[in-house]
Amino acid sequence: MFDKSKWIQLPRNVLVGHEVLEELSAAVSELYLSGRPLLVTSPTPNEIAGDRVRAQFDDPATVTISEASFDSVERVIEVGNEVGAGYLVALGGGKAIDTAKMASDSLDCGFISVPTAASHDGIVSGRSSIPEGDTRHSVAADPPLAVVADTEILADAPWELTTAGCADIISNYTAVKDWQLAHRLKNVEYSEYSGALSQMTAEMLVGNSDSIKKGLEESAWVVVKALVSSGVAMSIAGSSRPASGAEHLFSHQLDRLVPNGALHGHQVGVGSIVTEYLHSGEQGEWRDIRDALDTMGAPTTAAGLGISDETVIEALTTAHTIRDRYTILGDGVSEEAAIEAATFTGVI
Ligand SMILES: NC(=O)C1=CN([C@@H]2O[C@H](COP(=O)(O)OP(=O)(O)OC[C@H]3O[C@@H](n4cnc5c(N)ncnc54)[C@H](OP(=O)(O)O)[C@@H]3O)[C@@H](O)[C@H]2O)C=CC1
Ligand SMILES: O=C(CO)COP(=O)(O)O
Ligand SMILES: [Zn+2]
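^ inputs. structure came back:
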């Protein structure tokens, strides 16, 4: 008897483009939500677009958080209960969006994602990544009911946030390879649709890397569409597997070793150069990954990330302990192998 079943959760409305922020309330009313909106934001996004969001709603409440943490999540839940929030509107980068994503789960209400930075694919996904002490929790949550990504705002954001988003997408290359490897070696469930979508998204971005340029609103358009596509791939898979492999383990480990270090996307990009080399050797596509990152202005070396060569090696040799996710790192790469891969690819 056929007894497979699956529940795929996706945003219902995705608005991307010039000045779509003004269409936020229209996108929300389309969702049949009721109750008071609670705007969850952080200082700079609030300054940039908070008033434009509030102007579109009757009696909106606002909570401003300054860090992504469990305390911030608690604070949003508290304010949400106090004001009787019917739904949350997350305005900002990953900090505001991930905090709202987690809080909306506890408040049992939906949330709308309004990114002000195209910095990673968490703006669309059903996963929250919250740091705690020297570790980071990657938690499953519901994805946004709608995404409203105004390319005018995104193009105005600091360029490194956009190159971080690009690198997070490019890393899907190696994430999919890790997923396929885990499928072959460990019988991990693999979704052809999700894997193909994720891989194609990365290939399209690499193919267009020379058209992604600072100050061009069209670049924000290309990047945010790729972030949406990557988020959809994760929703189809029901896990972050299509967008998070060994390069993400490397980045999560760096977060532990160097708190407040480089941007997530920049770390996974550098990780991808090395893990592609581990997958395919000297003739693999690690040069394409490196060159695409370089063309966009994303870091390709330890120095570019502002970390020491020793930290790169420590992260590479210990990253497999981060979580139960089989990747090319297997049960751990030796120090010699890590040094060889990082040196050959020019990362150290
Ligand atoms: N769910 C997922 O898959 C993932 C989630 N994350 C989470 O996301 C967080 C990192 O996300 P990220 O977006 O990089 O970080 P932030 O939300 O902290 O944003 C980065 C910086 O950019 C500022 N900023 C945001 N938008 C603009 C803008 N339009 N113009 C000028 N400045 C702006 C913020 O200001 P201010 O400080 O004033 O807010 C902040 O200083 C991490 O804390 C992590 O928890 C990371 C990776 C993956
Ligand atoms: O960053 C992500 C995908 O790009 C999410 O991955 P994690 O599940 O490793 O947090
Ligand atoms: Zn990522």
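The pocket of 1,3-dihydroxyacetonephosphate (ligand 2) is lined by residues 120-122, 127, 129, 138, 168, 240, 243-244, 248 (CB under 6 Å). The chain has two domains: 13-156, 159-345.
thumbs up if we can close this ticket
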